[in-house]
Automatic annotation (TrEMBL):
Name of the featured protein: Glutathione S-transferase kappa 1
One annotated GO biological process: glutathione metabolic process
Entries under InterPro entries matching the protein: DSBA-like_thioredoxin_dom, GST_Kappa/NadH, HCCAis_GSTk, Thioredoxin-like_sf
Main EC class the enzyme belongs to: transferase
SUPFAM superfamilies linked to this entry: Thioredoxin-like
PANTHER family, per database record: GLUTATHIONE S-TRANSFERASE KAPPA, GLUTATHIONE S-TRANSFERASE KAPPA 1
Organism: Buceros rhinoceros silvestris
GO molecular function: glutathione peroxidase activity; glutathione transferase activity
Length: 201
């Protein structure tokens, strides 16, 4: 959520062509043999404090409690990622506001974004018509959307992703992988752009 928000802010400050690429986190974690950090009790305790500090620093409306990690671990994002994939394939201009709205619902309002009615609600809030949202929802069970999401997930794995957020910067003919929202300053350094804090003016 932090990385999404800040990169969207910087797309108008840095000379970059920002492309959001929906990928399936569980597929990436499984391929890398990774486990959610909150599964380790001491790390979960630390993360709770750290995420709250980061929300304040990045000025992102995130509400999190000790129960939030269980909610997150217990909910699938596959339907949401397939919906975003369908959007990316057919209506890419809506990808950014939809991504932001999904994250707000998931992290701040703790909604189950795997449910069709919640997906449609997210779409309406992001400005899509009911007709378009319903059409996109029907696409998520299609082989074309499923294959596209798998391809994007496999591509992230190929670049070395082992979790999210994963940012791949293509610079001077070479891909550079960055993991975590706290690597954006380093990203700027690599591509020759100045970090102006989490809310650049």
């Amino acid at each position: 959520f932090f990385t999404l928000q800040v990169l969207c802010r910087y797309q108008h400050v840095w000379t970059i062509d920002l492309r959001l690429r929906p990928a399936f986190l569980s597929g990436i974690m499984q391929a890398a043999g990774n486990k959610p950090p909150a599964m380790l009790p001491k790390r979960a305790e630390y993360l709770l404090k750290d995420v709250r500090r980061m929300a304040k620093y990045y000025q992102v409306p995130l509400q999190i409690s000790a129960d939030s990690f269980q909610h997150i671990l217990g909910k699938s994002t596959l339907g949401a990622m397939r919906f975003l994939t369908a959007v990316d394939m057919t209506q890419p201009q809506h990808l950014e506001p939809l991504s932001r709205e999904f994250w707000i619902r998931f992290w701040s309002q703790h909604e189950d974004t795997s449910q069709p009615e919640n997906i449609l609600s997210v779409a309406r809030q992001a400005g899509l018509s009911s007709e378009l949202a319903q059409k996109l929802l029907e696409m998520i069970s299609s082989s074309a959307v499923k294959n596209r999401l798998k391809e994007t997930t496999d591509e992230a794995i190929k670049y070395g992703a082992f979790g999210m957020p994963a940012v791949v910067a293509h610079f001077n003919g070479e891909p550079h992988l960055f993991f975590g929202s706290d690597r954006l300053e380093l990203l700027g350094s690599i591509i020759g752009e100045k970090w102006l804090g989490p809310v650049p003016t």
